[in-house]
Amino acid sequence: MEKGKLIIVSAPSGSGKSTIVQWLMQQHPELRLYFSISCTSRAPRGTEQNGVEYFFLTPEEFKEKIAADEFLEYEEVYENRFYGTLKAQVERQREQGQNVVFDVDVKGGVNIKHHYGDEALSLFIQPPSVEELRRRLTGRGTDTAEAIEQRLAKAEYELTFAPQFDRIIINDDLETAKEETLQTLNDFLGQ
After folding, report:
1. Are β-strands 81-86 and 54-56 bridged in parallel, bridged antiparallel, or unpaired?
2. Spatial separation of the C-alpha atoms in residues 9 and 122, rounded to whole Å
3. Mean pLDDT per segment of 10 residues, for the chain of length 191 residues?
4. Do the Cβ atoms of 90 and 116 come closer than 8 Å?
5. In 3D, which of 71, 52, 49, 53 has the Cα closest to residue 61?
6. For position 105, what pLDDT does the model report?
7. Neighbour order of strands in the sheet with 81-86
8. Beta strand pairing status for 6-10 and 120-126?
9. What is the DSSP letter of 128?
10. What Cα–Cα distance (Å) separates residue 96 from each residue in 1, 91, 146?
11. What is the DSSP track for 78-93?
């Protein structure tokens, strides 16, 4: 069986990244896309199961794995609240012929690309403008004005990473962005 390839997708919040990734996974099973299963030190929520949505570790277990250099990338979001991607888990999924999708922040995306080089395709989903991003975040109606300003400030910073990605897909029109992403993946996976 051919080893799976790696697809990294990063974007500022509100760019449509998750919408595009979900569409690819649901509508294009021929791509054999599977999320990398990350680790977290938070407790499971609702119906989440260990080894399905996440691998749930204690903060101590997480720190031991960091010390042993077992992560491709990780982040301490709050004190003792970690998220990360284990190298061994990615390799297990690749050995099964899965094309592994990383839905990660821009720094994580750059780190994974750096680690795998040409074995990975890195995509940056970019909003057409910060003004459009503001309109989308406001339209969601899920964040306070202050939270939106924080997200926009973070987005401006994240946009500076775009040139470090293999391909920038500008999500001005969702259907066009979906098709452009699909074509890019077909080209990469067909190599």
Report:
1. unpaired
2. 6
3. 92 89 95 92 92 93 97 88 93 95 90 94 94 89 90 92 97 96 96 72
4. no
5. 71
6. 86
7. 54-56, 38-40, 81-86, 71-78
8. parallel
9. S
10. 7, 9, 44
11. ETTEEEEEEHHHHHHH
